[in-house]
């Protein structure tokens, strides 16, 4: 059974720790508690921030107090199953070929797998959005197949493109912005995860399911040109 640890973060935030090991069940529990709190919020609730193994709750200290918020969280745990939303599923077309997969050959040597096997393993993974962090739109996906669970590179590499699909430490990212990274880039998609002009700028929500679909380089170029 999940153990909850409550930590005060200043006078206006409560951090709820559910564990220290990232896995799909724990992430689902975080998302369910978050949904339950949104359905029945404590007084003065300002924002909730779900992470892979914790939930940060920010509130107005003039409208509520720490013990009141904690009591709401404890009640939300009991209501979490009923409040949990049905996870949306996103299909992300990915090209695992040539210049769009700059780390594929090096990763193949490291894992002993062929480039085709790496692409096949990755596309067959069962992915779930664990959390956002590090940069806007930087959604951490759990569910990378075990043969691809490699550590990050020793040093970051600059100038990776938006839409780069990358893996490291058992997780996957679709690059939302051009930036340096120490993750292994094995493909690219034309789908934009960060959409600043939209009412909801993030394509994914924590708890969403992601499925990758293989496409060729010609199809990717067509999608990028739209």
Can you tag this structure with a few keywords?
226 residues, alpha+beta, Gyrase A, domain 2, Cyclophilin, seven-stranded mixed β-sheet, four-stranded antiparallel β-sheet, CT_C_D, Allophanate hydrolase subunit 1, Cyclophilin-like_dom_sf
Task: Summarize the SSE layout with pairings.
Layout: E1 5-8, E2 13-17, H1 24-39, E3 45-50, E4 54-59, H2 66-83, E5 89-95, H3 104-111, H4 115-123, E6 127-132, E7 139-142, E8 157-160, E9 164-168, E10 171-174, E11 179-181, E12 184-188, E13 209-215, H5 217-225
Parallel strand pairs: 5-13
Antiparallel strand pairs: 1-2, 2-4, 3-4, 6-7, 6-13, 7-10, 8-11, 9-10, 9-12
| CATH-scheme architecture of the largest domain | Beta Barrel
**Oligomeric state:** single chain
Largest sheet: 7 strands, mixed
In CATH's first tier, which class of the largest domain applies? Mainly Beta
Number of domains: 2
* SS field, number of helical segments: 5
Order of helices and strands: EEHEEHEHHEEEEEEEEH
- Cα Rg: 19 Å
Corresponding CATH superfamily of the largest domain: Cyclophilin-like
Residue-averaged pLDDT: 88
Outline type: elongated
Residue share in helix? 25-40%
Structural class: alpha+beta
Strand order of the largest sheet: 5-13-6-7-10-9-12
Percent range for β-strand residues: 25-35%
Strands, total number: 13
Separation, N- and C-terminal Cα atoms:
49 Å
Annotated CATH topology of the largest domain: Cyclophilin
- The parts where pLDDT drops under 50 for at least 5 residues are none
């Amino acid at each position: 059974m999940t153990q909850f640890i409550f930590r005060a973060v200043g006078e206006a935030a409560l951090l709820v720790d559910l564990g220290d090991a990232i896995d799909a069940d724990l992430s689902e529990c975080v998302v369910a508690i978050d949904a339950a709190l949104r359905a029945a919020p404590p007084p003065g609730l300002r924002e909730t921030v779900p992470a892979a193994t914790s939930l940060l709750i920010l509130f107005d200290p003039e409208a509520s107090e720490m013990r009141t918020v904690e009591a709401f969280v404890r009640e939300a745990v009991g209501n979490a199953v009923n409040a949990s939303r049905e996870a949306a599923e996103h299909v992300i077309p990915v090209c695992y070929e040539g210049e769009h997969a700059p780390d594929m050959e090096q990763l193949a040597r490291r894992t002993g797998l062929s480039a085709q096997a790496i692409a096949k393993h990755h596309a067959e993974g069962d992915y779930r959005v664990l959390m956002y962090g590090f940069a806007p739109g930087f959604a951490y996906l759990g569910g990378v197949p075990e043969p691809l669970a490699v550590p990050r590179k020793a040093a970051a590499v600059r100038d990776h493109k938006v839409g780069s699909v990358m893996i490291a430490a058992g997780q996957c990212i679709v690059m939302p912005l051009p930036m340096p990274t120490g993750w292994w880039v094995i493909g690219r998609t034309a789908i934009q995860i960060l959409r600043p002009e939209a009412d909801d700028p993030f394509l994914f929500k924590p708890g969403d399911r992601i499925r990758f679909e293989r496409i060729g380089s010609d199809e990717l170029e067509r999608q990028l040109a739209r």
